[in-house]
């Protein structure tokens, strides 16, 4: 039992230091009998939960991932945003094998102190979230539910979580024969039909509702007075999402029809500057193309992690300078520094917008191609495009 006191003494004496705390556990495991291992591991897990949870992180950027296996566990691999299939593909690859000491599988990595990333474990061929980490979210690139790593220097956007005692808006689907893909409209709490509202339109509407949580974010920001009341129109993509977002004229024609219907049936600011068009990933290139081609519909666009894979000829005249963006266009863009070629594409677009003299705001963050990233982007872009007039802003809950 002497090892218990040695190990716990090391843990309790120090601050949160990822490497030394794992080293203490491994040293204790290697110097003790197998029957003592469960108690040592349980003490380690309890201490880490009390100190801030798992994975173990510190402000230097070091991270320790831990998976508690069993005698039948053969291999555990770490997968995540930071281990893509290739620099040109944001899909997660096979990851890297974790080291084993007894039944404890462990891996060390180093990230920016302000990073927020998605990860999972591949346990004998089955991908699962980290059982020791309560933070989970849905990942498209990670094939389902995964875990969220939040480094000590990252401040989560509190408006992306459900706040109690905030009035809720309503969500309704447009019931028209032509409305396929589906179109859903968010109306803010205390909706006033005598008032004229700006509108945000999104691609991949179902994802913006379920995984990004746009209605919840709008409830929070409107309810707190952080932004002015806004109508949101979330437009789904058809089954062939890639073709729909590949500079497809049907995409623009459909949004034109949606805009006409919304302006006819809801009290909107029915002019280009009263509308924001937002999209992420392949929808990012689609909304940028739509705003360039139809400034009479949209003069403000939010481009999140634009996946520019595929033919670029529809944008060639713009990128070469033969065609210029409409002077009214305003672009908000964001990319994660763990998105490989998508980050590079965003920087190319940023340089082009600079040369064209287009109004722009660009945000880069130590994150990956993730709904968690776009959820935080949604908070930022709403604050950018729909700020409450001076004197009307109320106090907001702290981020965290």
The share of residues in extended strands comes to 15-25%
Instruction: Provide the helix percentage.
Output: 25-40%
The low-pLDDT segments are: 1-15, 393-400
How widely separated are the two ends? Answer: 39 Å
Instruction: Please count the helical segments.
Output: 11
Beta strands, count: 20
Largest sheet: 8 strands, mixed
Any idea what the radius of gyration is? 24 Å
Mean of residue pLDDT? Answer: 91
Write down the oligomeric state. Answer: single chain
User: How would you write the strand order of the largest sheet?
Assistant: 13-14-16-15-17-18-19-20
Structural class: alpha+beta
Shape: elongated
Description:
This protein has 400 residues and is α+β, with helices and mostly antiparallel strands. Helices cover 32% and strands 24% of the residues. Strands 13-14-16-15-17-18-19-20 form an 8-stranded mixed β-sheet, with helices on both faces. Helix 1 runs parallel beside helix 3, helix 2 packs antiparallel against helix 3 and helix 5 runs parallel beside helix 11. The longest helix has 17 residues. It starts with a helix and ends in a 15-residue tail after the last helix.
